C-alpha cells in the first residue's frame, strides 16, 4: 500500500513539475542582405496563433543574426504558421520561388527553432503545386510600391518570355459609344478638383496600382464622395461596360462587403461604398482610354481602343459567400464558378484527373496572379486540353464563359472566340481532394487567358484552414495584353502621341 502511495505521489510530483508554458525562440540570419535594409528595427516575425498576425520586432544578436523569444501559456499549443519580414512590407519568400509560411508545432518547455537564412525556405510537401506568393506591396505610397512600379511591365508569361503575335488591332463592329457617353456624363458631374483626382494619362502606372487589401489607400474618386445622382451615373458605367450577369456580380460583391462589415464591426475598412474609380486617357471613339474600379474583393481594369475591349486584370472575391440574414439575405457569390469548376473536374477520366491534379490536399492559398504580379512567371501545368470529348468540351466552355461572360454582351462572344482559338494549347490544373469534397483551387491557362479560382483561408471570419466561405478569382490576359498594353503599344507605334 505504501508503495502505491509513493508511486502515486511521484506521478503527481512529475505532473506538477511539467512546464506550464512554451518558451520558443525564432531566429534568422540576415547577414547577406542586412546592408540593403534601411531600418533594421523593422526586421520581425509575423504569423498565426499566439503571434496574432502582428509584426513582432527581432533583436540583433550579432553577426547578422536576429531573434526574439516568446513565453506562451501551454493552452496556446497549436500549429503556428509564420514568416519573417523587414521594411514593413518585404517578406521572406523562400527559395521555392513562392511564399509559403514555415510551420511549427510548439512543444512544452524551451524550444529554439533552427537558424534559417533569409530566402531559404525548405521545400514543402505540396506535390507539383506552388502556394501563393507573398504580398509584394501591402500599402500604397511606400518604397515597396515604388520599387514594384519601377519594374517595366512585361505581362504574365509561362517562361518569362512573351509569346508573340497573339493580339492585333481590329474592328469588332460592336460599338463602345454608350460606355464613352456614360463616362463623359459622370466626369462632367464632378467638381474640377475631383475630376483631376481621378483622371490620368493613358500610360499611367495608376493602371497597375490596385490591390485586394482592404486598408490599401486608393487614388481616384470614391463612392463615399459622391452624391446620389453621381453614384447613379458611375454605376451606369458598370451597366454599359458589363453584361447583366457581370453587373450583378459586382453588386453582390458589394453587398457581401456590407454584410462582412456588419459581422465584424469593421465599418472603416469594409462596406459597399469603399470603392474607387479612376479613368485613364480621354474617352474617345478612336483613341485608347479606359477605366478602373478598385476596392476590397472587386477590381476591374477596362481598356478600350475603338470598338475593342480588354477587361483584365479582373479580380473578384468575397468572404463569406452567403448572406444568411438581415439586409440582402439569400445573396450568394461564386456559386456558378465553384459548381462548374467542380463539374468539369469530375467529368475527367482517371488518367485526365491524374494529369490535372497538382496536389490532392489544400492547406494553403494558391492564387498566383493577384495584385502586383503583372510579370509573374507561371508555367503551364496540369492537363493539356487537347483530348477532351464533346461533353467535356461543352462543360469547359460553360466554365470559361462564366468568367468571360462578365464582359458586355457581344464583346464577350468575341473574347470567347479568341480564347477557343487556343483551346488545344490550354491547360487545366487542380489542387484539392479528388472527390471535390473539400476546398479546392483550379486554373485555366492558355497563351491568351488565365483564370484562377481559389478557396482561401479566412481573414475576417474564424478558422485558419482554406474554406469554401472565402473565394478569390482572377482573370488575366497573359503575354503582355493585361490593361490592353499590347494593343496600346501597337497603336502608339503607328500614331503620333506626345
Core attributes:
alpha+beta, 5-stranded mixed sheet, disordered N terminus, 23 strands, 498 residues, 2 domains, 11 helices, 27% helix, 13-stranded mixed sheet, Immunoglobulin-like
Low-confidence stretches: 1-17, 94-99
Tell me the total number of β-strands.
23
| Shape annotation | globular
Q: Kindly, what is the distance between the CA atoms of the first and last residues, rounded to a whole number of angstroms?
A: 100 Å
Largest sheet: 13 strands, mixed
Q: If you average the pLDDT, what whole number results?
A: 90
The tally of domains stands at 2
Molecular structure report:
The chain is an alpha+beta fold and 498 residues long. The protein folds into 2 domains: 21-124, Immunoglobulins (Immunoglobulin-like, Sandwich); 144-494, no CATH class. It contains 11 helices and 23 strands. The protein has helices at 2-17, 143-150, 177-189, 192-198, 228-241, 244-264, 335-347, 350-356, 390-404, 411-420, 485-494; strands at 21-29, 44-47, 56-57, 59-62, 65-73, 80-86, 90-91, 102-104, 109-112, 116-117, 199-200, 221-222, 275-280, 289-295, 298-305, 308-310, 314-318, 357-359, 383-384, 427-431, 441-445, 450-455, 471-476. The strands form 3 sheets. Strands 11, 12, 13, 14, 15, 16, 17, 18, 19, 20, 21, 22 and 23 form a 13-stranded mixed beta sheet that branches. β21 and β22 (450-455) form a beta hairpin. α3 (177-189) runs antiparallel to α5, α7 (335-347) packs antiparallel against α9 (390-404) and α9 (390-404) crosses α10.
Amino acid at each position: 500500500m505504501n508503495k502505491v502511495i509513493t508511486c502515486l505521489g511521484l506521478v503527481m510530483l512529475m505532473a506538477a513539475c511539467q512546464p506550464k508554458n512554451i518558451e520558443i525562440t525564432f531566429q534568422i540570419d540576415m547577414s547577406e542582405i542586412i546592408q540593403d535594409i534601411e531600418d533594421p528595427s523593422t526586421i520581425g516575425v509575423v504569423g498565426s496563433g499566439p503571434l496574432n498576425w502582428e509584426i513582432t520586432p527581432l533583436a540583433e544578436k550579432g553577426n547578422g543574426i536576429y531573434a526574439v523569444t516568446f513565453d506562451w501559456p501551454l493552452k496556446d499549443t497549436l500549429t503556428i504558421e509564420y514568416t519573417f519580414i523587414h521594411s514593413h512590407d518585404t517578406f521572406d519568400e523562400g527559395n521555392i520561388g513562392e511564399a509559403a509560411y514555415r510551420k511549427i508545432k510548439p512543444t512544452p518547455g524551451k524550444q529554439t527553432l533552427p537558424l534559417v537564412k533569409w530566402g531559404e525556405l525548405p521545400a514543402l510537401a505540396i506535390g507539383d503545386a506552388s502556394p501563393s506568393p507573398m504580398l509584394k506591396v501591402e500599402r500604397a505610397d511606400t518604397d515597396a510600391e515604388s520599387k514594384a512600379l519601377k519594374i517595366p511591365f512585361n505581362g504574365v508569361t509561362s517562361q518569362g518570355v512573351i509569346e508573340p503575335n497573339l493580339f492585333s488591332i481590329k474592328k469588332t463592329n460592336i460599338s463602345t459609344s454608350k460606355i464613352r457617353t456614360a463616362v463623359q456624363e459622370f466626369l462632367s458631374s464632378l467638381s474640377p478638383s475631383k475630376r483631376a483626382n481621378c483622371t490620368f494619362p493613358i500610360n499611367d502606372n495608376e493602371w497597375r496600382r490596385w490591390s485586394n487589401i482592404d486598408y490599401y489607400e486608393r487614388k481616384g474618386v470614391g463612392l463615399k464622395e459622391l452624391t446620389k445622382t453621381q453614384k447613379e451615373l458611375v454605376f451606369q458605367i458598370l451597366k454599359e461596360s458589363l453584361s447583366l450577369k457581370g453587373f450583378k456580380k459586382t453588386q453582390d460583391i458589394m453587398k457581401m462587403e456590407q454584410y462582412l462589415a456588419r459581422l465584424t464591426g469593421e465599418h472603416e475598412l469594409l462596406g459597399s461604398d469603399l470603392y474607387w474609380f479612376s479613368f485613364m486617357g480621354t474617352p474617345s471613339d478612336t483613341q485608347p482610354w479606359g477605366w478602373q474600379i478598385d476596392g476590397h474583393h472587386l477590381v476591374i481594369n477596362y481598356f478600350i481602343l475603338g470598338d475593342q475591349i480588354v477587361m483584365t486584370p479582373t479580380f473578384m472575391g468575397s468572404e463569406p459567400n452567403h448572406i444568411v440574414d438581415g439586409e440582402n439575405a439569400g445573396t450568394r457569390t461564386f456559386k456558378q464558378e465553384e459548381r462548374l469548376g467542380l463539374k468539369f473536374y469530375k467529368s475527367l477520366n482517371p488518367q485526365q484527373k491524374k494529369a490535372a491534379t497538382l496536389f490532392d490536399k489544400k492547406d494553403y492559398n494558391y492564387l498566383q496572379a493577384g495584385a502586383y504580379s503583372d510579370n509573374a512567371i507561371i508555367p503551364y501545368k496540369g492537363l493539356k486540353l487537347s483530348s477532351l470529348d464533346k461533353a467535356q468540351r461543352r462543360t469547359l466552355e460553360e466554365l470559361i464563359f462564366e468568367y468571360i461572360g462578365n464582359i458586355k454582351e457581344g464583346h464577350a462572344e468575341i473574347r470567347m472566340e479568341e480564347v477557343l482559338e487556343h483551346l488545344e494549347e490550354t491547360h487545366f490544373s487542380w489542387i484539392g481532394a479528388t472527390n471535390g469534397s473539400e476546398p479546392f483551387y483550379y486554373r485555366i491557362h492558355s497563351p491568351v487567358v488565365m483564370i484562377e479560382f481559389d478557396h482561401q483561408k479566412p481573414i475576417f471570419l474564424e478558422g485558419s484552414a482554406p474554406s469554401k466561405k472565402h473565394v478569390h478569382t482572377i482573370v488575366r490576359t497573359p503575354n503582355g495584353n493585361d490593361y490592353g498594353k499590347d494593343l496600346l503599344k501597337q497603336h502608339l507605334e503607328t500614331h503620333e502621341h506626345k
